[in-house]
TrEMBL record:
Thymidylate kinase-like domain ranges (all copies): 412-597
Catalytic reactions on record: dTMP + ATP = dTDP + ADP
Binding residues for ATP: G414, G415, E416, G417, S418, G419, K420, T421
Keyword Zinc: no
Protein name: Thymidylate kinase
Top-rank taxon: Bacteria
Taxonomic lineage from the root: Bacteria, Bacillati, Actinomycetota, Actinomycetes, Streptosporangiales
Keyword list, A-Z: ATP-binding, Cell membrane, Kinase, Membrane, Nucleotide biosynthesis, Nucleotide-binding, Transferase, Transmembrane, Transmembrane helix, Transport
Molecular function terms from GO: dTMP kinase activity
Enzyme class of the recorded protein, top EC level: transferase
Keyword Transport: yes
Role according to the record: Phosphorylation of dTMP to form dTDP in both de novo and salvage pathways of dTTP synthesis.
């Protein structure tokens, strides 16, 4: 009997019920955040603007504290509890707390309820994350995770719309959040047959998320830029609540509609601009939009600018998460959002209005964006303005001093034992079979000088070679390689396939040896006259697998510890994520022929026309042959 595999992960009934509970719970979280912060402003309105601002800041602080104080404990504790019962109890507790707020009617209880609701959520989320692997096959986990992220942020505009309608109910505007939590509890109750305990919650704490999102220079720049966009959104939320509940709901909804559009259209924006540059420009644009919003008085214009701010933030996140691990960044982003709102709202109260607070925050975000761009920029020395103008015209900007070549340049990159050497050889054989002029080469050691440098660089006895000397020797080999082998072949129109190129120096010497990537990039840009491959194929193989494939005595690089090779792999992946239009990333653990087919399919897209244009011109004048 053939077992029919579900066409979509939502075709799995237990997961579909859990997903409905996740949707209702996320909707309740957003509705509760909106209602409690707005209610805090209403309950303190009689005490003046400063008191309102401080009260709103107090609610955001109350929502923030549990993640910082209890976050590291909630996950490990939750996996010891019954998952279904934990989610059910957490939902019912949140229903009771939200419903009690209008009954008590005191600002102090609003803050206390916000704190306790967030504590309950800290148990609900890890229980949910530990439940998903029990309901979904391993090969569908990534799809299930994407759906989880979709409901987490996709329910925000819906919550804003519902909240705007509920503002007419006065203190009972919180009822929407209570109802959403109740619906979540009903869906959780329908889940049957779950393992009661065990597993591991996949949601990291804030500190774990910060560490897991990467520590190299590029990852640090991306992380700072992403959190800057979140902080800008949090600042806008923190001050808009002081404008009244209706305006608050509209601005909140406009922000997340813009984010959703940016996340969806991110890969389609300025496709000829380096992804690293697009990221940095988007972060700067978020800060600039916040400054302009502070200066504008017309509410309709503010709403349009808020959509623009959200759109730029969405683009930055879509591009940035290609470099960083999205799930690890989620708790850090949530804390940043609440922290920015908690700081900016009281600051606006002290300043007597939102103007100075938003201008200061926007200016700070622009500085952070500029610093992030400086860290991640992969086209240093190339005019950013010219690059952007060319991208707006749908073109890739090439500086005038960079020589254009008629050939095609393909580089293979990867860690030790990744299989890149084998795949570069197989591609060269395949292309020669198609009749192309192919030059297959490698680094280091494809020239007479390079052979001597290779002997020094890979000699296991040369343990005392300093990282800077190593980087300069690789750059010297590369300069000779480009001058004597690669460029002459490209000038005659050949297809050049190299086993390693500049990215290897950025990964091995930049990340592996902990040198400044900007220095390594600058030296190699000068050594190669900024010659960039048309395509870089990254054979991505875990070092724990690749190192076992090596035969014979390990050379100086291969004998480095596993941590070194992990840093190298992470940097390769970061480089590919920063410029996906120029990279093909292939899983190196796949069968050999499957990897070859994937590479061939991608290379076909950049192969030159086999019929020269001169021949086409001649044949185009020949009369048609008729029967």
């Amino acid at each position: 009997m053939t077992i029919r595999r579900p066409a979509h992960v939502l075709d799995i009934p237990p997961f579909r019920r859990l997903w409905m509970a996740m949707s209702a719970s996320s909707l309740g979280d957003w509705l509760t955040l909106l209602a409690l912060s707005a209610l805090a402003a209403q309950l303190t309105a009689a005490h003046g603007y400063q008191a309102q601002a401080a009260a709103v800041g107090g609610v955001f602080v109350a929502k923030l504290l549990p993640a910082l104080v209890l976050g590291p404990l909630a996950g490990p504790l939750t996996v010891r509890l019954d998952r279904r019962l934990t989610m059910l109890v957490a939902d019912l507790v949140r229903v009771a707390l939200v419903a009690s707020v209008p009954l008590v009617g005191l600002y102090q209880w609003v803050v206390a309820a916000a704190f306790l609701i967030e504590c309950a959520t800290l148990f609900w989320v890890p229980a949910r994350d530990a439940t998903v692997p029990a309901l979904v096959p391993k090969e569908r986990l990534e799809e299930a995770t994407r759906l989880g992220v979709l409901v987490t942020y996709g329910t925000a505009p819906v919550a804003a719309l519902l909240f705007t309608v509920l503002t007419t109910a006065g203190p009972w505007m919180v009822a929407g959040g209570a109802l959403a939590y109740l619906v979540s509890a009903v869906w959780v109750f329908t889940l049957r047959g779950l393992p009661r305990r065990g597993g591991a919650a996949s949601t990291p704490s804030v500190l774990e998320g910060w560490r897991a999102s990467g520590g190299d220079r590029v990852a640090g720049g991306v992380r700072a830029g992403l959190l800057a966009t979140v902080a800008a959104g949090g600042a806008l939320i923190g001050v808009s609540v002081l404008s009244g509940p209706v305006a608050y709901g509209v601005v909140f909804g406009a922000l997340f509609v813009g984010v959703a559009v940016g996340l969806f259209f991110g890969p389609r924006v300025l496709t000829q601009l380096s992804r690293s540059r697009l990221f940095g420009v988007s972060v700067i644009a978020v800060g600039a939009a916040l400054v302009v919003i502070a200066l504008v008085r017309d509410q309709s214009v503010v709403v349009m600018l808020t959509v623009v701010l959200g759109l730029c933030a969405g683009v930055a996140w879509r591009v940035g998460l290609e470099v960083l691990d999205g799930p690890h960044m989620e708790p850090v982003a949530r804390v940043t959002l609440l922290l920015a709102a908690a700081v900016v709202a009281p600051a606006a109260g002290l300043a007597g209005g939102a103007l100075l607070a938003l201008i200061a925050m926007g200016g700070l975000m622009m500085v952070v964006g500029a610093l992030a761009l400086r860290r991640v920029d992969d086209r240093k020395g190339v005019s950013l303005s010219e690059d952007m103008l060319a991208a707006l015209r749908g073109e890739r900007y090439t500086p005038g001093d960079v020589e254009k070549v008629p050939g095609v340049f393909i580089a293979f990159e990867g860690g030790e034992g990744s299989g890149k050497t084998t795949q570069s050889r197989l591609l060269a054989i395949w292309l020669r079979d198609q009749g192309f002029d192919v030059v297959q080469t490698r680094e280091p050691g494809s020239t007479k000088v390079g052979m001597r440098l290779r002997a020094i660089l890979l000699d296991a006895a040369e343990k005392g070679l300093s990282p800077r000397a190593e980087a300069l020797m690789y750059a010297a080999d590369r300069a000779e390689h480009v001058e004597k082998v690669i460029r002459p072949a490209l000038e005659r129109g050949a297809l050049v396939i190299t086993d390693r190129y500049v990215d290897s120096s950025l990964a091995y010497q930049g990340a592996g040896r902990a040198l400044d990537p900007a220095d390594v990039a600058e030296v190699n840009a000068w050594a190669t006259s900024e010659l960039v491959p048309h395509l870089t194929v990254l054979i991505d193989t875990p070092p724990s697998v690749g190192l076992t494939r090596l035969g014979g005595a390990a050379d100086r690089i291969e004998s480095e510890p596993l941590e070194f090779h992990e840093r190298v792999r992470n940097e390769f992946r970061s480089l590919a994520g920063a410029a996906p239009e120029r990279y093909l990333v292939v899983d190196g653990t796949l069968p050999l022929d499957e990897i070859s087919r994937t590479v061939q399919d991608r290379v076909r897209e950049i192969l030159p026309d086999p019929v020269p244009s001169e021949s086409e011109d001649i044949t185009g004048t020949m009369p048609a042959i008729r029967d």
